[in-house]
Every structure is written in C-alpha cells, then in structure tokens.
Amino acid sequence: MNQHQQRICTAPHSKVYTHCNDCRLNSICLPLSLEFSDIDKLDSIVQRGKPLQKGDNLYRSGDPFKAIYAIRSGAIKTWSSSRDGEEKVTGFYLPGEVVGLDGPAENIHINSAIALQTTSVCAIPFDRLEALSRQVPGLQRNLLQLLSREINSDQKQFNLLGRTSAEARVASLLLSVSARYERHQLSAQEFTLPMSRSDMANFLGLTLETVSRVFSSLQKRNIVSANRKDIVITEMLALRALTHKNGDETCR
C-alpha cells in the first residue's frame, strides 16, 4: 500500500481551507465546463465542518433533507431499517462521490448515513444549489448526472442481488471499489476496503460465512490476496469473469 493512497483513504482532512478549484477531487466533483467564476459561486455555498469520526452519523433516516454531501476523505455507509428493525446496508461512498440524494423526492432522508472511518465532507445546501444551477448550465447538467448515477447504481444492485451467485456478488463489489480508486489515479489492484466483511455481506444479501468462504476460495485460486481489509487483486481478468457467474446457492 503506497503512502499517498493510504493518506487519501483514511487521513483526517486538514483544517486549512481548501477552495473547490484547489481540491484534489475537483475533476470528479465538478463539471469540466465550469468557468473559474462559476466555481467561485459554487465554493461560496459549500459548508465545510469538522471531520466525522468513525461511527458518527452524517444524517439519520427521517431527518429533513437540506443538503447533499461531497466526500473529501474517508468513507460513508448508508443503511435503512426494516419494519422489524433489521439493518439493511444500501451503499458505500468514497472520496469524490456524493451522498444524500435519497432526500429530494420526499424532502426527508430515506436512509441513514454513518462514517466508516474519519471522514470529511463538503455540505452543499440543496436549495442554494438549485438556485445556482439555474444560473450555471454546467452545474445543472452535473446535478442531473448525479441523480442519474444514483438511479443506475440502485438498478445495478437490484440486478446483482437477483441474478448472480455469491462469488459474482463479491467479485462485483471488489471491482466497483477498484474502479473507484482508479478514478483517483490510484492502484486499481491494491487498496484497502473501507467496509467490514459483515457490512459487505449485508449489502450483498449474503451471510458473513458465505462472504468469508468466497474470499477463501478467491485466495486459494490466487485471484485475490486479502489480509483483513487490505486487498490485492492478482488476476483482474479472472475476477471480472466471475461477475458473469450465476448460481443457485443459498445465500441467506
């Protein structure tokens, strides 16, 4: 694990003010078409608070929807609660990604969001973002793209849970995290998972025992090397091939 990668994954954000234009994630968060003056306008509405510590809530289910949150460092897990009180993990969000898009439809958050590690976010008040997006077409397009990605992500998860084997589900999640690190020009083959295996199992609709069994199998076949949360993908093509595997195995 190189030091630069570890710093981006887990380090608390500096207290020094960082303008949106200087942020290392601006190529992911911001529309490429924005002019400097437009970035200044966006920066003027962004709220930057103290970092969340592991286990801190960003928001809770039922809270009024006021803002969306761009993750600067760390990781966020979202989850919902069933009628019988069972927790269901609904997503994992990494630096450069936006969380909170479950809120606009009902003006309340449907999910809860919790920090998986020390995490810094930029809060963007949604009413002010809407007003600004009417003035800045590039920003409006970016907002629509964010909403579209959220819908596509939900659809992919539905398809993943409904049609594939346990091995394919684990492989798909590993490849998703890999691709997201690669977007930051970090290693796509060597990284640290922000979530626990129990969270992975919950998200994928599997038991913890099944996820552990899949990891053991991947290691025996030298496709993946795993040391707790530290992952090395040794055979990327083989891992990708597993995402197409269907099966009838019982997952729960």
TrEMBL record:
<keyword id="KW-0804">Transcription</keyword>
<feature type="domain" description="Cyclic nucleotide-binding">
    <location>
        <begin position="30"/>
        <end position="100"/>
    </location>
</feature>
<feature type="domain" description="HTH crp-type">
    <location>
        <begin position="164"/>
        <end position="237"/>
    </location>
</feature>
<dbReference type="InterPro" id="IPR000595">
    <property type="entry name" value="cNMP-bd_dom"/>
</dbReference>
<dbReference type="InterPro" id="IPR018490">
    <property type="entry name" value="cNMP-bd_dom_sf"/>
</dbReference>
<protein>
    <submittedName>
        <fullName>Fumarate/nitrate reduction transcriptional regulator Fnr</fullName>
    </submittedName>
</protein>
<dbReference type="InterPro" id="IPR036390">
    <property type="entry name" value="WH_DNA-bd_sf"/>
</dbReference>
<dbReference type="InterPro" id="IPR050397">
    <property type="entry name" value="Env_Response_Regulators"/>
</dbReference>
<dbReference type="Pfam" id="PF00027">
    <property type="entry name" value="cNMP_binding"/>
</dbReference>
<dbReference type="InterPro" id="IPR018335">
    <property type="entry name" value="Tscrpt_reg_HTH_Crp-type_CS"/>
</dbReference>
<dbReference type="InterPro" id="IPR014710">
    <property type="entry name" value="RmlC-like_jellyroll"/>
</dbReference>
<keyword id="KW-0238">DNA-binding</keyword>
<dbReference type="Pfam" id="PF13545">
    <property type="entry name" value="HTH_Crp_2"/>
</dbReference>
<keyword id="KW-0805">Transcription regulation</keyword>
<dbReference type="InterPro" id="IPR036388">
    <property type="entry name" value="WH-like_DNA-bd_sf"/>
</dbReference>
<dbReference type="InterPro" id="IPR012318">
    <property type="entry name" value="HTH_CRP"/>
</dbReference>
